Amino acid sequence: MAEPAPIGGESYGEIRRAVRxxxxxxxxxxxxxxxxxxxxxxxxVTALSEAGFLAALIxxxxxxxxxxxxxxxxxxxxxxxxxxxxxxxxxxxxxxxALLRHGSTAQKEHWLPExxxxxxxxxxxxxxxxxxxxxxxxxxxxxxxxxxxxxxxGQKIWTSRAAQSDLMLLLARTTARERVVKxxxxxxxxxxxxxxxxxxTSPSVVIRPIRTMINHSTTEVFFDGLRVPAExxxxxxxxxxxxxxxxxxAERILIAAECVGDARWFIAKAxxxxxxxxxxxxxxGQNQGVQFPIARAYAQCEAADLMVRRAAELFESGAxxxxxxxxxxxxxxxxxxxxxxxxxxxxxxxxxxxxxxxxRKFRETxxxxxxxxxxxxxxxxxxxxxxxxPRSY
Length: 393
Description:
The chain is of the alpha+beta class. The protein folds into 3 domains: about 15-115, Acyl-CoA dehydrogenase/oxidase, N-terminal domain (Butyryl-Coa Dehydrogenase, subunit A, domain 1); about 120-240, Butyryl-CoA Dehydrogenase, subunit A, domain 2 (Beta Barrel), CATH 2.40.110.10; about 240-385, Up-down Bundle (Butyryl-CoA Dehydrogenase, subunit A, domain 3), CATH 1.20.140. It is about 45% helix and about 15% strand. It has 13 helices and 10 strands. The strands form 3 sheets. The chain has a 4-stranded mixed beta sheet with strand order 1-4-5-8. The longest helix is centred in the middle third of the chain and has 37 residues, at about 240-275.
């Protein structure tokens, strides 16, 4: 499939080519084996770290690349376009925003060089809980001040990569909900060192894997008297929810870029198969019933890509980008799912065979209709905050 014309210049061509070369070392067989075993792609993540891609947004002063968000989006898009799965480590890129934007100078000097060098991994983000789900303001995990420490008790769920991370960004309640003056206050953000907390006969942090439809390394995490130094609190006490919201736009843009990468993988896979698969003495791609879904998916993908680029542009300029970031995520997730449907249908029975990688990628891209924010919540956001309709929840 011909490369789409770059929007606004080179579009990080050198970075994209470097990512493709790296991904070529991890072909479909690598990902299939991990999928069967529900294993973590340790070698792939190490290679990304050593190449500096996971430190893309960390400033050069702290050992990172100091690249803008659009460059990180290009990295993740190319991973997915190459048939891989950036979900194994993408949080290390976007979670970094909370530390970069709201962390103290001392925190950044202490943690960022170690993360940039790959000696520490910050890939876990503890927000969701069993009873609250997307209603973050209802979370029950507490952080109680005790001298120079906070003592944390509670539970998180869908905390992906907790078992593979050294550090976790954790949102916890520091003020009881009934005592909060303004909605959105009372929650604080902490950088938790998981290494010592998960060790010993009576650990204060217990991580339990959740086996899911896809290989996502997700877990539930239990906190029992975990002591976290007060110096590990990010920003002001009680302002953590605002810091999390601040980072969600970056997360949505980067996830949307992954969806664009998935869509392009599916489209290329379907195109190649349709052009070569012979049935009734002719390639199936000669039939409009096969052509049209692939062509429509291509159009959806290109439109979503433009929205991703627009959202990243707004984010980098410091402009309000919530509507654009949410729209990008919505359109890109729908484009990747449309491309997945077209690709599986084009392959017919072979699409269900592991060796074609279609069924694996089909399962993986389906996640983005639900996470990290569901399409319904995005539609509710756009209805209220963009169209001015009454609040629905």
